[in-house]
Design brief:
The structure holds two protein chains of two kinds. By secondary structure, chain A is an all-alpha fold. Chain A is built from four helices and no strands. Classes of the chains: A mainly alpha, B mainly alpha.
Chain lengths: ~60, ~700
Amino acid sequence: MYKEILRSIDNIQVWPVVSFVIFFMFFLLLLWWALTVDKTFIRQMSELPLEDGTDPIQHSKTSSL
Amino acid sequence: MELERISYDNKIVKYFIVATVVFGIVGMSVGLLAAIQLFYPIFNFDLQYTSFGRIRPLHTNAIIFAFVGNAMFAGVYYSMQRLLKTRMFSDKLSWIHFYGWQLIILAAAITLPLGLTTSKEYAELEWPIDIAITLIWVVFGWNMIGTILRRREKHMYVAIWFYIATFVTVAVLHIVNSFEMPVSLFKSYSWYAGVQDALVQWWYGHNAVAFFLTTPYLGMMYYFLPKAANRPVYSYRLSIIHFWSLIFIYIWAGPHHLLYTALPDWAQSLGVVFSIMLIAPSWGGMLNGLLTLRGAWDRVREEPVLKFFVVAVTAYGMATLEGPLLSLKNVNAIAHFTDWIIAHVHVGGLGWNGFMIFGMLYWVVPRMWNTKIYSTKLANLHFWLGTLGIIFYALPMYTAGVVQSLMWKEFNPDGFLTYQNFLETTTKIIPLYMLRAVGGTLYLSGVFIMAYNLIKTAYAGQFVANEEAEVAPMVKAANTGGYWHHVLESKPILFTTLALVAILIGGVFEMVPTFLIKSNIPSITSVKPYTPLEIHGRDIYIREGCVSCHTQMVRPFRSEVQRYDPKNAEYSKAGEFVYDHPFLWGSKRTGPDLHRVGGKYADSWHYRHMLAPSEVSNGSIMPAYPWLFEQTVDKSTTAPKINALRKIGVPYEAGFEEKANADLGTQAAKIAESLKKEGYEVLPETEIVALIAYLQRLGMDIKAKKASEANQ
């Protein structure tokens, strides 16, 4: 049954190709962006969790369990 | 620059933490009970509310939505405020979210033992609760997006991205999978039927694992791991790629739950390919987590928090390698329907989610109560009990899975199945079931120790309900050329939209072909809608959770065809399920497949078997169902059920609902008569009669087709 219904969708065979192209283009763009993005921005971002504005003394007091 | 004084809301986090610990203990205890029931059926207590079929969904729902869910909210509320340098958008919304979610859990804890279930895995709750979940989820999202818009940090850290993706995708999954036609307040039928229902369900089921159990915890990993290690994440670039590739690929992989079923081949292959691709982002994420500890491994030896995180991230890596391997068709042929899958999910559940939660709790509780942990020794003890628990859980289940699967498939030199009786393959693995319960007990005892340790910590400290912070106000973005808030506010919305688009593309590609399939047009003419008595019987089958242990999907393997349909050699065809709202293919064979059970045994066999399974099949671990012999079918629901089914495409002729009960009476009387002949006196109204009618119907339509072909 499914084969007949799938056959009845025009150009069904192109779907996997389209999905691959969308997928691949997205990742090329993403890679390009991630690799060229400013270094200081990356550093700032990665340090975000460590600076939340609370008293750092309180943290060092309890940093070791 | 002038610093602003703000306060982070710790109280809401505290409440979610308490709920996490309480429901963790409850959910795991229920799981342990279910594990014990599998080797000592007496622990089903011969009570309908505590039989395995109803306990198992209670366990999965409690763990996923109550334990992991509450911990997720605790982690999100704690980290989001600090990453965005603002209090949550609205305290009121936070509390509506908290109490609303707990009420939903309460509703689940009441309705599931009562047998009120849709039977779709991890989506068992009935439609009014589904609506409540939708509303509370919107409150959560509203609060989250509101907080993001009010942030004092220009950029959103990657953890926030994972939270956004979680919110958006779970909303889409839940709504699409919960389309159902209500019959009464606590009964509904899935909108979809058969193959379509199966695909929607496993698109949901797979992505619920992805976006409820994985993405929020990855966000938490990217926050709590650097915090606990006191150093930034290894590679922020990698985390960006991790995020986008994960959410982009994950959504496509759902069909790997349906390999060798009636699903079109190309969809199965698509699921496999994307599953294999998933290894890349998953391992990227795992390595990013582990490498964050570079140069700090000496501290792992001393700090239980880091130990828990290391095992959690490792378990994530193991489970995400195993998952794609399981989706290869040759591996799947062996592993599917066996305890291998149970081992796989528990490496994820106990290892990844559980240990992430424990690590987070040990880190957060001393800070929120402004003290040190009560006992590092006890935390270490918990770590070892938990780790041993995982090993004692997983190893026996892997062994059980492989042993049973090989026994299912073994042929003797004459070409017959070596183990013709399914029960032989079950009794063989019972010692392994016992070992699994030992693993579960170890793990659970660790959680009790944690609860004690955390309570003692809290009592020793002073709870900081509102944690003061001094933060810089949002910097005006000079280079954007527009109003700063316009530019900034547009980003999270844009981001949310992008995440939504990414998951929708995958979802649409996967679903559209099946939605185009007119599954309500019978492709096998001999397949007819269920009779009124069979509808009731099927609903009893759903209520009792038979689908937890019995599949209805004979896969196209010689071993399965020969075992389940030796006479006609018919595997399960898509056309046989067109009236199945919901589908009942199942995902685990603790007992044999039932799709060809109709006509295999006499009515009296089923009668005796449901009353005392182990007396009919010596050594059977199936629970007894004595209440089916006392309770009667509620005939007043027949007409609403038929009306509801007709509305979603089952072709009952107009006015059929009026004569349906007469039809039901005739069929029931016939079965009661046949039982009487064999010496079993039974009232035709009792539920057992309806259930027998349903079981005897299974697979009969395809046999009718065969018979009519033979006549021609």
